[in-house]
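Re-run with default settings, no changes from the original entry. Doing this only to confirm the output is reproducible before filing.
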Amino acid sequence: MHPIHFKVFKSDIRSIVVPKRFPFVFTNEPHPLCRIAAEELQQTISTQEGWSDLFGLKEGSTNVGKMFGVLVVQAEDGKLGYLAGFSGAIDGRNDFPGFVPPVYDLLNPQGFFKIGEQQLNELNAGIQKLENCDQLYSAKERVAVREKEMELVQADWKARLKAGKKERKKQRLEAEAKLDGAALEARLEELNRISQLEKIDYKKAMAGETQKLDHAKDQREALLGPIAALKQKRKEQSSRLQFEIFDQFRLLNYSGEVQTVPEIFRALGEEIPPAGAGDCAGPKLLQYAFQQNVKPIALAEFWWGASPKSEIRKHKQFYPPCRSKCAPIMQHMLKDLDMEPDPFNDQMHKPAALEILFEDDWLIVVNKPERFLSVPGKDVADSVQQRIKQMRLGAEGPLLVHRLDMATSGLLLVAKDPETHKALQSQFIKRTTRKRYVAVLDGLLPQERGVIDAGAGSD
């Protein structure tokens, strides 16, 4: 008997060769079986009532899409099928028929997360109530009024001091023209005393205004104090709740070993896992497969819907699991599964020496070869940055001003000191640096000009 979410292929897959090893997951190119499974799943998604608007596909919708995934599996009886999943939740739900369940159900109304969420909502309501109360509004207004009054008093006094200084200068000149001896000395001393008295009166006036302003600020701070305390409590409670959530994500691997999300990331030196770790499509699919004793054959994820503003995501386009959030989890979950090696590692080029095209006291221009890293990777240290550190021991970081993809060859700017690095990076940020790329294309282009809006390696 097959698991409840096991889907039998509707398409004829008899001509498709089943991979002997689990295909490397961090690639845009899915296995043909995954393509067929994804096409069948996309047909199902497109017929779901109301989902067109949920993912921003309906005209005028402001919603964005979501990542979906398919995991081709082999049941205990040898039958091939696939599982379907999605990242996070859809319209506040994660229990849609035909999709694998989450690793941990955050939406369970009786679960600690919902209870904790309710407590945070109560804190938010309390903070909002205090922030919007009439007393705080009046206290802030009093501070603003006192600040304005202080500015006016200071401006008035400065004008008086300036006018007094000007008048005394005139009187000194008159005294020097008409008087001499003791009379002149007495007159000049009198004018100096008047100047000092004016400055004393100015300081007294400003001290009085400062006292009034400080009193108004004390009244405001007395009302802001409880708000700050509630915000600190909310921060601590939110952090505690987040770690409790991560601890509930107990992830299996092919050998049946279990690790929580914090344990996985802590082993990599990361104390705080990324938000949403463990709730993506890939981990959900693998978890269900291991729980149901079906063998994973191939995995692929695709974007369905409108692209978010924060990153480029194309409707129906395949994407590998994210490196920062999913890679550590996948490393654990696929640990004992016979998976193909990373093709990029096989293609790595290790030049005997780096070609330096220009160098002075401040910077270096390096010709980075193709299939060579700009900076050290997770498993490979050899890179332009590592080589420069070894070649120029006197150079101070951060060194590389920009990066190039591993597969891309080209010029890299390397700064020898922090000041040069900051100045060069500022030019990149302000886009005053001009860049030119040359690509080798396979095939004939239908037109001479156009715009490429898909990522490199896209279909």
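The chain has a mean pLDDT of 89. Strands lie at 7-8, 66-74, 80-86, 250-252, 258-260, 295-304, 318-319, 355-359, 363-368, 410-415.
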